[in-house]
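Table 4 source record.
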Amino acid sequence: MRLTYHTDYALRVLLYLAAYPDTQLANIQDIADTYAISSNHLMKIVHKLGKLGYIETIRGRNGGMRLARKPADIRIGEVVRQTEEDFFLVECFDSEHNCCVITPVCNLRTALQEALAAFLSVLDKYTLADLTSNKALYQQLITITRKEPQSL
């Protein structure tokens, strides 16, 4: 099983926000700089996470984002299910486009469906709080890049 970059980055945004100081708002550019990924791509992901109710965004000069729920209330399996486009591990998972001639007798589909269910079941056991239990260490590792005003 391989997750899309969209899901990978969505999970990274949530991890970042879970580790971010509770009294501050994070912004897309800081997250993009920290992970060395496109801020344009992150905007789409942040928008989706907001629509899904995982984060809240505050507009304006001093705006930013923060988690909309407690990390203990965010299940990783749920996030993966909501951010992945599909779970078509093989062609026969997509009944609309399946052209495989052995589908009627093939047991591979059953085995892969069981494996996918097990994969998601394991992720369902973990919350964002579980993954960021050492918040202080996360804060050290996630470099929050802030530009200080330049003195003349």
